């Protein structure tokens, strides 16, 4: 689905409020009932159906009435929520052309208020070509249920964490700027993918640089697992940049050596077939093929434990729990379990005045009720989360009470209908008996 942000400029705060209500409802519902959307949105004068029809026209939600009348978010609606949050934070002011398409993500050019051009990566797990993600990656851990929006959020969170950590350790990766939901904002690298290169001035130097980069990752306790020409950028000076990190695993992983050797073989194969460079035949530079066991033996990095990479050692579970404690990430996903912190939802319902991507200036809806009374800047402070949690609990209690009342009315109505049917049946039976006699 094409990302068209023109509709984003003209959406009202009530429409965004309704869209966020659908997202909150998807925490516990695959298809969110209209009554629940109306309760969560808490609009002063109602009118939720009118705004839902507008969102449906923009293809931000999908209508499903197979079991009951309800709605769910689409990827385009999730895109709008993520971009709106970044607009409110001031990290994004405009969205430009699409510069990349992958099997699990789309990349767009964006710009901030200062005119800096950056890259916005929107994860889109669940495409037809990538349906096996739930079996090949451990995003779900021991969970049995999932949604593709939730998996995309986990992938974005993981990539942002890896990119930030690797950048702090001096590895050539893009600068991680911001993230929200399934979107990751990073610096735009002036380079092209290695797969588009047909000739290198110093192929031997580039090859050794790639192998040394792989060794540095392993020494930190990580294996890229997708170290190939599609995820490596090279500029005019033949400097390298590594991208795409959600699939990284720990060197303690049971298949770590196999994955490491696969990455090495992939680079060697590319240089031989595409560039015509055979590393072992180069007399100017010594042939370099890293040995996994030797690299691991001398490594002292624990970045895999700090970032909870797949395959980390169990004796470091306490470190992981401190890192991944509840409430660390305030940007929740669209469905799943309690990991979906709802802080950003409350922030969206507050609706701060937008930056120039919004076509009109509207004051924040200070008096709106429902689940919207939380901090407006999208921050993850504990007070905001606690406040929203209390309000969400209150909304839940009101919904339960309404459902009980509806159930009681239905029970009374059902009993009345049964009594009427029974009385009518007895009357017909008595009439038939008298006629027979």
UniProtKB/TrEMBL annotation:
GO terms for molecular function: ATP binding; metal ion binding; protein serine/threonine kinase activity. Its cofactor is Mg(2+). Pfam families: RIO1, Rio2_N. SMART domains: RIO. Coiled coil: none annotated. CDD domains: RIO2_C. Residues 64-297 form the RIO kinase domain. It catalyses: L-threonyl-[protein] + ATP = O-phospho-L-threonyl-[protein] + ADP + H(+); L-seryl-[protein] + ATP = O-phospho-L-seryl-[protein] + ADP + H(+). Keywords: ATP-binding, Kinase, Magnesium, Metal-binding, Nucleotide-binding, Serine/threonine-protein kinase, Transferase. Its EC number is 2.7.11.1. One of its GO terms (biological process) is maturation of SSU-rRNA. PANTHER family: SER/THR-PROTEIN KINASE RIO2, SERINE_THREONINE-PROTEIN KINASE RIO2. This is Serine/threonine-protein kinase RIO2.
């Amino acid at each position: 689905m094409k990302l068209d942000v023109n509709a984003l400029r003209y959406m009202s705060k009530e429409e965004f409020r309704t869209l966020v209500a659908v997202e909150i409802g998807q925490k516990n519902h695959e298809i969110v009932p209209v009554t629940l959307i109306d309760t969560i949105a808490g609009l002063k004068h109602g009118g939720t159906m009118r705004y839902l029809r507008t969102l449906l026209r923009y293809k931000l939600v999908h209508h499903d009435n197979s079991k009951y009348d309800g709605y769910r978010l689409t990827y385009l609606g999730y895109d709008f929520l993520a971009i709106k949050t970044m607009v409110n934070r001031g990290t994004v002011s405009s969205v430009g052309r699409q510069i990349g398409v992958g099997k699990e993500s789309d990349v767009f050019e964006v710009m901030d208020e200062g005119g800096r051009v950056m890259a916005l990566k929107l994860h889109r797990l669940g495409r037809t070509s990538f349906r096996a993600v739930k079996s090949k990656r451990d995003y779900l851990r021991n969970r049995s249920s999932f949604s593709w929006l939730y998996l995309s959020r986990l992938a974005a969170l993981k990539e942002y964490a890896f990119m930030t950590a690797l950048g702090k350790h001096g590895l050539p990766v893009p600068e991680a700027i911001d993230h929200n939901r399934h979107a990751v904002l990073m610096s735009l690298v002036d380079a092209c993918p290695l797969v588009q290169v047909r000739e290198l001035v110093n192929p031997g130097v580039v090859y050794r640089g790639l192998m040394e980069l792989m060794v540095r990752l392993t020494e930190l306790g990580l294996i890229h697992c997708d170290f190939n020409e599609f995820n490596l950028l090279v500029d005019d000076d033949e400097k390298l940049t590594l991208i795409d990190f959600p699939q990284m695993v720990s060197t303690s992983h049971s298949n770590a050596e196999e994955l490491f050797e696969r990455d090495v073989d992939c680079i060697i194969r590319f240089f031989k077939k595409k560039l015509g460079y055979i590393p072992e035949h180069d007399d100017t530079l010594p042939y370099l093929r890293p040995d996994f066991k030797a690299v691991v033996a001398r490594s002292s990095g624990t970045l895999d434990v700090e970032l909870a990479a797949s395959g980390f050692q169990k004796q470091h579970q306490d470190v992981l729990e401190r890192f991944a404690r509840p409430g660390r990430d305030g940007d929740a996903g669209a469905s799943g379990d309690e990991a979906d912190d709802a802080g950003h939802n409350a922030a969206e319902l507050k609706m701060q005045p937008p930056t120039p991507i919004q076509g009109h200036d509207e004051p924040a809806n200070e008096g709106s009720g429902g689940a919207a009374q939380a901090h407006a800047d999208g921050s993850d402070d504990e007070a905001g989360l606690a406040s929203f949690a209390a309000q969400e609990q209150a909304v839940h209690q009101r919904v339960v009470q309404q459902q009980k009342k509806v159930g009681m009315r239905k029970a009374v109505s059902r009993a009345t209908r049964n009594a009427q049917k029974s009385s009518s049946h007895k009357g017909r039976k008595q009439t038939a008996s008298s006629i027979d006699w």
